[in-house]
Amino acid sequence: MGWWFGRKAAPADVRAFAPSWLNTADVEVGFARSYEARFAEVFHDNPVGQRCVRLVAGLVGSLTVYAEVGDERAAKLVLADGLLEGIAAHLMLHGNAFVQAVSSDGEVPDELFLLRPERVKVLADERGWPSAYLYGAGERQVRIALRDGLERRQVAHLRALSPRDDHYGMGCLDAAIAAASVHNRASRWNKALLDNAARPSGR
Predict the structure, then answer these.
(1) What pLDDT band is residue 16 in, cutting at 50, 70 and 90?
(2) What is the rounded CA–CA span in Å between residue 117 and residue 99?
(3) pLDDT in tens, 150-188
(4) Residues 6 or more apart in contact with residue 114 via CB below 8 angstroms
(5) Is the predicted pLDDT of residue 34 greater than 50, yes or no?
(6) Phi, psi at residue 130, to the nearest 5°?
(7) Model confidence at 80, in pLDDT bands (50, 70, 90)?
(8) Engineered SS bond to 89: which of 6, 14, 57, 73, CB 3.0-4.6 Å?
(9) Does the structure show a pLDDT above 50 at 22?
(10) pLDDT higher at 118 or 193
């Protein structure tokens, strides 16, 4: 065994093996920054993240809404088209949920539309209070006033807790992106290993 302990270094042509998913030369350094990229990493491509969001949002969407006499129409609007489930999902992922109310007459809206939160920008007045919302889809932008001519609220903004922001809530993507990215890269590495007959890369 003397030859082993007397060896001071590995041969020059031998290099340490590292999994391909640890090599960031061909991928984005760090974690995804944009909402679209984080959404894809945490929800679209990660079964754990998607299951968590769908579980909670589905439970919210299945809640029973009781209406007093005369408010049946309002309760029906709230339960239509998976509105509650969509609100819960947006709150968890983005931290904000925007619902536009369209009214023709009376106090009860005719329709409720769930707006995609990444497309909504809060416009504040000179005092810093929200006065309108800017909704952009493609190259088109629509300004929606906080209240209409009859002082009826046009947009309901629900937001998750964000102690450092006055107008926007904070979703779970910031906290989940690291774990989801590591999980996704490990899954891709495992698949590549199986595709290579369980032989590590370079072997």
Answers:
(1) very low
(2) 10
(3) 888 899 999 999 999 999 999 999 899 999 999 999 998
(4) 81, 83, 86, 87, 90, 97, 98, 99
(5) yes
(6) -60, 130
(7) confident
(8) 57
(9) no
(10) 118
The confidence band for 83, taking pLDDT boundaries of 50, 70 and 90, is very high
Encoded amino acid at 27, one letter: V
User: How far is 99 from 178, CA to CA, in rounded Å?
Assistant: 30
Q: What is the amino acid identity at position 145?
A: A
Q: Using H for helix, E for strand and C for coil, what is the string for the chain?
A: CHHHHCCCCCCCCCCCCCCHHHCCCCCCCCCCCCHHHHHHHHHHCCHHHHHHHHHHHHHHHCCCCCCCCCCHHHHHHHHHHHHHHHHHHHHHHCCEEEEEEECCCCCCCCEEEEECHHHEEEEECCCCCEEEEEEEECCEEEEEECECCCCCECEEEEECCCCCCCCCCCCCHHHHHHHHHHHHHHHHHHHHHHHCCCCCCCC
Q: Are 142 and 121 in contact (CB under 8 A)?
A: no
Question: Which structure tokens are listed for 32?
Answer: 């995804």
* Whole-angstrom distance, CA of residue 190 vs CA of residue 196: 10
Token look-up 């709230």 returns 78
Which letter, b or e, does each residue of 141-154 get, where b requires 16 or more Cβ atoms within 10 Å of its Cβ? Answer: eeebebeeeeeeeb
How far is it, in rounded angstroms, from Cα 77 to Cα 132? 23
